[in-house]
Amino acid sequence: MNFTYEAGPARVVLRPGAAVTATAHEVERLGLRRVLVISGARGADVARRVADSLGPLCAGLHDEARMHVPAQVADRAVEVARETGADGCVAVGGGSATGLGKMVALRTGLPLLAVPTTYSGSEMTPVWGLTEHGGKRTGRDPAVLPRSVVYDPELTLSLPVGLSVTSGVNAVAHAVEALYAPDGNPLVSLMAEEGVRAMTSALAVIAERPSDLEARGRALYGAWLCGSCLGATAMGLHHKLCHVLGGTFGLPHAETHTVVLPYVLAYNAPAAPEAVRSLRRALGAEDAPLALWNLAGRLGAPRSLARLGLKESDLAVAAERAAGQGYANPREVTVEGVLGVLRAAYEGEAPGAGESAGAAFDG
Ligand code: NAD
Question: What's the CA gap between 218 and 199, in Å, rounded?
């Protein structure tokens, strides 16, 4: 055994109704008196309810969050935070609203609280992202880690099944890569295995009964665990590849993670036996990549990059870019290897079954 573990300072509250019954208490616990509530336009109704529950603790509602935090959107939110004299921010929404809250926290030093409405897990990480000059930059800073996270399963009842499944698999991807991360540790592995178990079992129920509050709560519990894994470890090929596909080709974030994960796992599996054992236990299946691919199919999620709009001629560029960045991965990342992963993901065939998936095992 040889590891370093640093626990994030975040406090977590999870219960039905918590968004309107617990957020004010969390704001007060931090000694804040005027917080700016941040959301996207589509999530403004929910954010308004949270803002109303805050009463005089609310300095205003800013509902201009957009996917991948464009620079001008971040500039405007910082301006609004200053104009309203806010002493903290509450992000209500998915990774996009949390991402905007993080940029305000980074630029102003204001403490951030998060009330997540998807399963992407951003609320548990000190990772921020900003899109400018046609590219997305990311960084780590403890200042952007939310001080308190209020998980309310009732807020996720409106999350359509499709988005529930893809954002849930996005969370699973964090746990998968944490299981073979070079800076992993026994606690992260426990959280990752339990996160995958909780999330995948919850998604199966949500796809059948979207209004099942117990399953919605279990999915948020999974999001918490998987997000914590992302916050604690360095991610590998899967996250780099999805970053390239989103940043360079504009592919949708959660859907791309859902399509790519089984193929990257099949590629990395021979070099990560311990991670594969954990995933077999969590998924209750012998073949973990195939189990993830089957799950996506059963739950109606997209399974091919072609269906997400990627062109065959983009594959070589994406492979070059994803292989050309320095990062840790259990298996050597070669352009040929990534191209094999991408071809298989483009076709959407079962991982490890066809010629192109076979090519992924070369090199
Ligand atoms: P999102 O926040 O972009 O939301 C997706 C869509 O779902 C939006 O249209 C939103 O309005 C809608 N929506 C959200 N919650 C809803 C609900 N409960 N009911 C109905 N509709 C709802 O999606 P996301 O997948 O949560 O976040 C993606 C973004 O987060 C990306 O920019 C990604 O890079 C970032 N991210 C960052 C981290 C990190 O650690 N920094 C981790 C994961 C994701």
Answer: 7
